[in-house]
Design a protein that fits this description.
Elements (H helix, E strand, L loop, with lengths): L2 H17 L1 H4 L2 H11 L9 H10 L6 H11 L4 H14 L7 H10 L2 H4 L3 H11 L6 H6 L7 H11 L5 H8 L6 H11 L2 H4 L2 H15 L4 E9 L2 E8 L10 E4 L6 E6 L4 E5 L4 E3 L10 H12 L4 H14 L6 H14 L10 E4 L1 E3 L1 H7 L1 H5 L3 E6 L5 E7 L5 E2 L4 E2 L1 H16 L2 E7 L6 H18 L5
Parallel strand pairs: 10-13
Antiparallel strand pairs: 1-2, 3-6, 3-8, 4-5, 7-9, 9-10, 11-12
Length: about 450
């Protein structure tokens, strides 16, 4: 389905969901609900008319955010919840997992390893599937009812005569969306469900044996509550490691020296660059992480002062001769607003993303050419580079003469970055020529970027 078709389908779905707001609210609480959902306020007419007029004013670009706010703030029921989740997860371009692979995974999974703790296992199933599908029978015969929950407890937990394949069949896992199936198997091997690291690794290896044929695999991306955090990522990202240092916001080119290739130690001399030397976790580097680091480095007790001085320091590193970069940086923060605190930090003028694995494979000199206008370190080791291209990138003589050598060098750098696990997005300087143009562009681009890479707004 085309992007326009997906948006039209999402609007129809949300239209049906929002229609129920009138039935569940008084006129007063409906006004409050509009505020919670960030829907345009309307005052006149019946509750139904107010809802219809408000929803009609929601632009297509805001539909995904509205769906997410429904999930966060409204009790919509499991079936509607799943519809909204599927729409959101589809935007993140989940890996395609064919039915054959799903069945092979199910056949490989040992039920006794899956169900280490029945209550936790059932709670996990309840997050992804509609298992309370016959609540009245449960009231009449607790534990013996006809609901899917009761049948799973009887046939998969208490008196296990179902295989994992039969469980997946009953859940609808074979026909489920790719995004739902991917998150389901991530949750099934999570530490808070199994409480057993060896079981986590055993199940992940069983799954990966079949999953790798699809170009994806479960990979350890960090820890949570002391247990490995396993996430489904494209196989080409499986080589990534946490960066040891990020050298950025340099006022001039820093002198980067390699003190120890064995220990991956570097020394930054001059250039007035900032060096983020904390461990980069599974969530990447968010503004909150960067601000906390800055606050400690500068010994600033006040959060607001830390936020303001950090923004000013980053902004000061942007070149005066590139209004496009300055407009992109400012628009990034204006578009995200207060939400930026929990979003990936936009790191400007990055001279080095010190990745020990890349050094081992390509040598330390390879990293020295990786100067980036902006770098975003996203969850699960995803790396996004944003470049602003003025005419100096492909011309000489102050833009009068095309320079094919410069252009060739630029695209060669892109190839090296992509081979090392980065996604590169380029902007023409004219797209960002003024603050208004930049804001309009970033307002469209950022939601789609984050949805594609699985970052929640």
């Amino acid at each position: 389905m085309s992007k326009d078709g997906e948006r039209a389908a999402l609007r129809r779905m949300l239209g049906g969901i929002t229609a129920s707001l009138g039935d569940r609210n008084t006129h007063k609480t409906l006004t409050e609900t509009f505020t919670v959902l960030s829907m345009p306020p309307t005052d006149e007419g019946s509750k139904r008319e107010r809802v219809e007029r408000s929803f009609a004013q929601v632009p297509d670009s805001d539909l995904l955010q509205l769906a997410e706010r429904f999930l966060q703030t409204q009790d919509v029921g499991a079936a509607t919840r799943n519809q909204l989740q599927d729409a959101l997860w589809a935007e993140a371009s989940p890996p395609e997992i064919p039915m054959r692979t799903r069945r092979e995974i199910a056949r490989a999974l040992d039920p006794t390893v899956l169900v280490q703790h029945p209550a936790r296992f059932m709670k996990m199933l309840d997050r992804f599937w509609v298992i309370n599908d016959d609540p009245f029978s449960e009231l009449l015969s607790p534990g013996q009812g006809r609901s899917l929950r009761s049948r799973i407890e009887r046939h998969f937990i208490r008196n296990p005569d179902w295989s994992t394949e039969e469980l997946f069949e009953a859940l609808g896992a074979f026909e489920a969306s790719d995004g739902r199936f991917a998150r389901f198997i991530e949750a099934a091997v999570a530490g808070d469900v199994l409480l057993d690291e060896s079981a986590q690794r055993l199940l992940a290896e069983m799954i990966n044996e079949h999953l790798r044929t699809t170009g994806s695999e479960l990979r350890e991306t960090g820890t949570k509550d002391g247990y490995p955090r396993l996430a489904l990522v494209p196989s080409q990202l499986a080589h990534t490691r946490r960066p040891k240092n990020v050298v950025f916001a340099s006022l001039r080119k820093p002198d980067i020296r390699f003190r120890s290739a064995v220990d991956n130690d570097i020394e930054v001399v001059g250039g007035d660059a900032l060096v983020y030397d904390r461990s980069v976790g599974d969530e990447g580097i968010r503004w909150r992480d960067l601000q906390s680091w800055w606050q400690g480095e500068q010994q600033i007790p006040d959060d607001t002062e830390a936020k303001n001085t950090l923004y000013a320091r980053l902004h000061s590193s942007l070149p005066d001769n590139s209004p496009g970069q300055r407009n992109l940086f400012g628009s990034y923060h204006r578009v995200l607003g207060a939400a930026v605190y929990d979003m990936p930090a936009l790191l400007p003028e990055v001279w080095l993303h010190w990745d020990p694995k890349t050094v081992k494979q390509r040598g330390p000199q390879a990293l020295l050419r990786f100067r980036m206008d902006f770098l975003l370190l996203l969850p699960h080791g995803q790396r996004i580079v944003l470049e602003v291209d003025g005419s100096q990138h492909y011309t000489r003589d102050h833009g009068r003469t095309p320079d094919t050598a410069k252009y060739a060098d630029m695209v060669a750098g892109d190839r090296d970055l992509k081979l090392s696990g980065y996604e590169v997005y380029r902007f023409g300087h004219d797209e960002l020529r003024d603050a208004l143009s930049a804001h309009a562009l970033l307002s469209r681009f950022l939601p789609e970027l984050f949805q594609r890479h699985g970052v929640s707004l």
